[in-house]
Amino acid sequence: MRTIAAVALLIGMFAAAGAGIALAAENYANDAKRFALTVPDGWTAVPGNAGPVDLALISPRFDQTSGLCIVVSKMMTESRHATQAALNDEMEKGVDEAFWRAIVEDKSARDTTVEQRSELRSGRRVFLATVRQTMKLGQEDTPMRMELALHVVPGLIMMGQCGANQAQFSAEQNDIKTITDTLNPTAGVIASLDRPQGSSTLVLFAGPRFDGDIRELAHDAPDLRLGHTASFALRGAQQWEICDRANYQGNCRLVAGASAAAFGGRPLAIASARRVAGRLSAVGVAAEAGAVLMKSARERMVTRQR
To answer: Is residue 209 part of a domain?
Structure first.
């Protein structure tokens, strides 16, 4: 299920150092991305500069605790006509421990434990998880605790992730609870939701940095007979399904939007690929957004530690 999309956009996703603003406790709203939350006293708000992450919140105690929150809000045009009840049901069936592990686990993390739960807020089911794991931050193994909140509403998926060192988590706990409790979608009409029309091309690279042998696909390919693919790029608006066996069988995942991903030294065997019509799974989009969020958080923490 895990699709790490938009990783190529991470470079330059935040404002330059010092561009954030340390705030007294106040409400923050992003009307374009349709989310709002309360910023705790003294936290620095760093809006994303058109990158995959829309807001970073940095604790005034970051040097001691690594306290950090990140929010991403992603329009999902395919769900704009769905009812909230239908989305609640779809997500409740798909958001389980395996879902959260697909988001948070990678080769730099170990000893992961997940505690999951959900709650109703004004008819919306909000999915929550507490994750504890040891992460590689720079050269050090650091036990971390993270709180994640996932919101799915018609036309929009939003996820927030807050984390801090396990040893110092109590110093951040109240502020993090304020952020996750107050993070909610805002009301309003989503503009320009229609899916753009036009062709779509899936580009497969043998190398991990969008290099090496290249294979471009503009049409369905039931039997590629390729070696391993270490990275890919998707150009155009359509969705594609990629599978590790011929005839669209085996382990399959959806990729959508103008996205790109590198698989971090773990190449995939892509044996078939096809364009997919219809609505993209809300669960799949949530996993995609969460993977981007986790990657961004790790890189942000490492940068701040240097």
So the answer is: yes
